[in-house]
Amino acid sequence: MPITSSAKKAIRVEVKKKVFNARRNNAMEAALKSIKKLVTANKIKEAEKKLPEVYKAIDKAVKIKFLKKNAGARYKSRITLFLNKAKAKK
Questions:
Q1: Which of 8, 12, 54, 80 can pair with 31 through a Cys bridge, CB separation 3.0 to 4.6 Å?
Q2: CATH code for 5-89?
Q3: Residue 45, SS3?
Q4: Could you tell me the residue ranges of all domains in the chain?
Q5: How far apart are CA 50 and CA 29, in angstroms?
Q6: Over its length of 90 residues, how does the chain's per-residue pLDDT go in tens digits?
Q7: What sign results for the dihedral spanned by CA atoms 82, 59, 69, 10?
Q8: E strand or H helix at 20
Q9: Contact 67, 27 (CB under 8 A)
Q10: CB distance 4 to 11 below 8 Å
């Protein structure tokens, strides 16, 4: 158990941050999952419409520093590559 007041406050802050981080992570993962599901179901047009939603979720995660800048860029790059490869096959 924390003894000092600063340690007690650190725990309170950690709990709040955990909620915000979980929300950001769930939003990002849900968006990524939905676009991957659409691509595997050959619904390329719908997946393209969802792409800005995925970008928005990733950008918000980067903004609150849940993800580092380059990690966010990597996620966006890979999902775009995935979509483009599926489009090329079709």
A1: 54
A2: 1.20.58.110
A3: helix
A4: 5-89
A5: 13
A6: 888 999 999 999 999 999 999 999 999 999 999 999 999 999 999 999 999 999 999 999 999 999 999 999 999 999 999 999 999 987
A7: negative
A8: helix 5-40
A9: no
A10: no
